[in-house]
Amino acid sequence: MSNYKFIFLVLVASIAFFTSCSTLDKASLHGLNSGFYKLDSEKQLNNVYLDVTEEKIDVYRQSENKPYKESFLTIPLKTSDSLLISPLKFRKQSLDIDITTILLKYRPSVYGLPAQLTSDINIAMYAGTRHDNYEIINKVDPLGKCYNKITSFGYDFGIFAGPGTTAISPFTTNNYTNNEYVGMIFQMGIAGFLELNMASFGIAVGFDYLLNSDRKIWIYNNKPWVGFVVGIALN
Question: What is the pLDDT of residues 91-119, one digit of tens each?
């Protein structure tokens, strides 16, 4: 294994370990956390604050970016004897900051050479606008007990940038060099994600810039690619 790849593996593993610990501490039931939301009610969006625990969700009206002292709705998360008005829909928009890696890059044909699918090691910081949608639906279990099911869907769009590696060879330089080695690149672009509780998956479009003098002969320098990207949330 090259020194570049070893350094990247250590860096990725270290960041993933420490950030996943903090993310797990923050995660709550179904990804719904305490905070400010929009309540979608009768085709209107009302500002509310949700206090989420393992037992229930207390819903507070909001005024001047502050919740009222008393809740106007309590949603039990355990089985209960009564049903609430269903469904209840909440929305949230926030800044999303992730550590991402592009697992696969599809590089279109250049200079008549075949297109390439690569899986080089890379890592990048991502920042975008995240949109989360939650729906709470009443259900009844086989024993006749009522419970509330939470479903969620999220997506976001943003930009990313960071370092990576790439193979330099006669093929990737159109036979301008006979050397074969792993070069360092700087990558940047835009990405769109579908969100899960603690990870996200999506599609990216970007460009790579080779960080040495062979960039003049590297056929993919500043050429667009399409990739499959995975992110780990930091916030």
Answer: 999 898 989 999 999 999 999 999 999 99
pLDDT at residue 23, rounded to an integer: 36
- Asked whether 35 and 57 are in contact (CB, 8 A), the reply is no
**Total-model pTM:** 0.75
Q: With b meaning 16 or more CB within 10 Å and e meaning fewer, what string describes 34-71?
A: eebbbbbeeeeeeebbbebeeebbbbbebeeeebeeeb
Strands 199-210 and 224-233: antiparallel
Do 48 and 60 form a contact (C-beta atoms < 8 A)?
yes
CA-CA-CA-CA torsion sign (12, 13, 14, 20): positive
Partners of residue 201 on adjacent β-strands: 194, 230
- pLDDT digits 0-9 by tens, 188-214: 999 999 987 667 899 999 999 999 999
Question: Is residue 48 a contact partner of residue 38, using CB atoms and an 8 Å limit?
Answer: yes
Collect all residues with Cβ–Cβ distance below 8 Å to 21 and sequence separation of at least 6: none
For 206-224, give one letter per residue: b (16+ CB within 10 A) or e: bebebeeebbeebbbbeee
Domain ranges of the chain: 3-233
Residues 210, 183: contact at Cβ < 8 Å?
A: yes
